[in-house]
Write a structure and sequence with these properties.
This protein is mainly α. It folds into two domains: about 325 residues, Glycosyltransferase, CATH 1.50.10.20; about 45 residues, no CATH class. Helices cover about 55% and strands about 5% of the residues. It has 14 helices and seven strands. It has a three-stranded antiparallel beta sheet with strand order 5-6-7. Strand 1 and strand 2 form a beta hairpin. Helix 13 packs across helix 14. The termini are close together.
Length: about 375
């Protein structure tokens, strides 16, 4: 099985390197030059509908509407962490240099956002606006580089990311960390990822204020765990769904926070939530369910995060490593193209084969690198 995973990883890496780490993104529809040239680009409804069309169609309209292939900051962060785990340090360092040049201007510390405008139901996010999740995974890439090389210059951007989070994303009462600046929506995976990053930097630098605020923020989301150990996505009425990969984010973030802080007070909650994750989001053959109560769409992002979650929490269930292998085996058999890249989704009626660079390729390379390391 390790050979199968290794070969899959090699084929994926070869394909990604062949693209020079460039590609389309699931949410990049507003980068379409033809759309930007029309009055529709000024309409909230039109922007939302346009993004959903590009997201849900198995036909790739990006070519005819002139959406350029680009490097995605979050994708690069995931690629860096994967390359470091695969002992390709020099390649990772080159991407880190580029990430430094991609930092967002106008905010304290260091932060990163997406390379496209993004219209959500509640708000519009212009290209380059920093967000929690992108910033955390890129900061983690710098922490991974620091751990691998011992170079202090790799630690600085992660520390500066903590400054950005504390000064631009802190919500009260709570406290709770926001997803983007100046937005009050409370989303648990964003909050917990931010809290985990602060604890990890504290573990290296010993800065107690980072630990104190991170514990308070983590408590906010742990308290949102339901009696059956399911985690709602967020606080708003339309955020009450329970889905696969965001639950995985929460589990890994809580585990990382406890390991970094040395405080294991929420271990019972973690154990119960992980058991819920294993029992409610997977078919017997390793196929992922998107929601706790619904199979479709079958999404490769769930696969990738599922592998990472099972590897990171393997001490809490004796079958975790085998489960990670089973999830990977299913994805390799049903979601990997002969060219090496991974498909985006399977619905009840069709397979969406568009090779998204961040959502699919970066996440699967990241996941497979974790599995290869964890299987040794």
């Amino acid at each position: 099985m390790n050979q199968t995973i290794s070969q899959s990883c090699d084929r994926l890496l070869s394909w990604v390197v062949g693209t020079d780490f460039c590609g389309w993104d699931l949410f990049d529809g507003l980068n379409a030059r033809l759309f930007k040239s029309t009055p529709l680009s000024r309409s909230r409804f039109s922007r939302l509908a346009w993004i959903q069309l590009f997201k849900n169609s198995p036909v790739n309209f990006r070519i005819i509407t002139k959406v350029p292939k680009e490097r995605n900051p979050k994708g690069l962060g995931l690629f860096v962490s994967a390359l470091l785990r695969l002992n390709k340090t020099e390649g990772a360092k080159k991407l880190l240099v580029e990430l430094l040049a991609m930092r967002c201007a106008g905010y304290s510390g260091s932060s990163w956002g997406y390379n496209f405008d993004w219209q959500a139901r509640a708000f519009f996010v212009p290209r380059g606006t920093p967000n929690m999740v992108t910033t955390v995974f890129i900061a983690q890439a710098f922490l991974d580089a620091f751990e691998k090389t011992g170079e202090e210059t790799c630690l600085d951007p992660a520390r500066e990311a903590c400054t950005f989070i504390r000064e631009n994303l802190l919500l009260e009462p709570g406290p709770c960390f926001a997803y983007i600046p100046c937005e009050e929506a409370r989303v648990h995976n964003a909050n917990m990822l931010g809290a985990a990053l602060l604890a990890k930097v504290y573990a290296v630098t010993g800065e107690k204020p980072l630990l104190e605020i991170s514990k308070a923020a983590m408590r906010y989301s742990v308290n949102a765990l339901r009696d059956d150990f399911s985690w709602p996505y967020g606080e708003r009425d339309h955020h009450q769904f329970v889905d696969n990969f965001h639950t995985g984010f929460n589990l890994v973030a809580l585990s990382d926070w406890m390991e970094a802080s040395g405080d294991w007070g929420w271990e019972d909650e973690l154990r119960g939530a992980y058991r819920y994750f294993l029992e409610n989001f997977w078919l017997q053959d390793g196929c992922p369910k998107y929601y706790n109560n619904r199979l479709y769409p079958i999404d490769v992002h769930c696969t990738a995060q599922g592998i990472v979650t099972c590897i990171k929490l393997r001490e809490y269930d004796p079958g975790s490593l085998e489960m990670a292998r089973k999830i990977a085996r299913w994805a390799i058999d049903y979601m990997q193209d002969a060219a090496g890249y991974f498909y985006y989704q399977k619905t009840r009626w069709y397979t969406n084969r568009i090779p998204y660079i961040r959502w699919s390729q970066a996440w699967m390379l990241y996941a497979l690198s974790w599995l290869l390391e964890g299987s040794i």
